[in-house]
Amino acid sequence: MGKITYKKLKGSQNMRQRLLLATLKSTPILIEVIHADDTLPGLRPHEISLLHLFEKLTDDCVVEINETGTKLKYKPGIIVGGSNLVHDCGVSRAIGYFLEPLILLGFFARKTLAIILTGITNDSKDPSVDTFRSTTFPMLKHFGVPSEGLKLEIKSRGVSPHGGGEVHLTIPTVQHLRATMWTDEGMVKRIRGEAFTTRVSPQLGNEMIYAARGIFNRLLPDVYIASDYRKRLEAGSGNSPGYGISLVAETTSGCCISADTTVSYGEKQKILKARTRKS
């Protein structure tokens, strides 16, 4: 076996894109100076978790990290996919952080991908799992991805800081993707959405729906926002209290425009502590 030639990169920017493209192109990469100037240098917990996820989906993948975590050697393997896979995404980033590269890897796997992801389903930093289900999946049809077998089920909702969410993802394999010229955004014809609460009063969800409808009904009548209220742990409420809403506007050209937001009590406490320190 000959010597492996690594493509050299520097910095921590675009870490997901670098790992994803290296895997799809079977190109070994060497990344140096990863968060080297930070107070805590080296790979972050969510970046290490992403590497573990790539290892689960591929065969013969090799990952080498130096002692300080500032240098990474990544030799991608063959994308296998498979079923009955489970991955804990942790609580430093939401599940949406992992879904973006995971979906693309699943398309080019040898087998249909079926995986359970646990962690934070909704937060203010990453796209929510609702956005992937209501916006990303419908838009993928324009690129030749069949809707049959493409599925995302939310078994449990989890918000920061302690997560506790669980989603079941199924991604079919595709032979090729279709190039699409899509420049016409179109006019909004309907708005759909879902408000959720976990371990808090469902009244908060009702108030969000009422306020959102009060704004959107001034523009168009076709507005429907569903509710997903989970108060008890056995009902899939996760480990932290919080609430939020996810909205998607469907246009006449088949475009989907999404927006979502989440409020968790852990985040509120962090903001209050930061303000107290400043004062």
UniProtKB/TrEMBL annotation:
Family matches, as Gene3D superfamilies: RNA 3'-terminal phosphate cyclase domain
Domain of life: Eukaryota
GO biological process assignments: endonucleolytic cleavage of tricistronic rRNA transcript (SSU-rRNA, 5.8S rRNA, LSU-rRNA)
Ranges where the RNA 3'-terminal phosphate cyclase insert domain occurs: 183-268
Stored InterPro entries: RNA3'-term_phos_cycl_insert, RNA3'_phos_cyclase_dom, RNA3'_phos_cyclase_dom_sf, RNA3'_term_phos_cyc, RNA3'_term_phos_cyc_type_2, RNA3'_term_phos_cycl-like_CS, RNA3'P_cycl/enolpyr_Trfase_a/b
Molecular function via GO: RNA endonuclease activity
Keyword Nucleus: yes
Family membership: Belongs to the RNA 3'-terminal cyclase family. Type 2 subfamily.
Protein name per Swiss-Prot or TrEMBL: RNA 3'-terminal phosphate cyclase-like protein
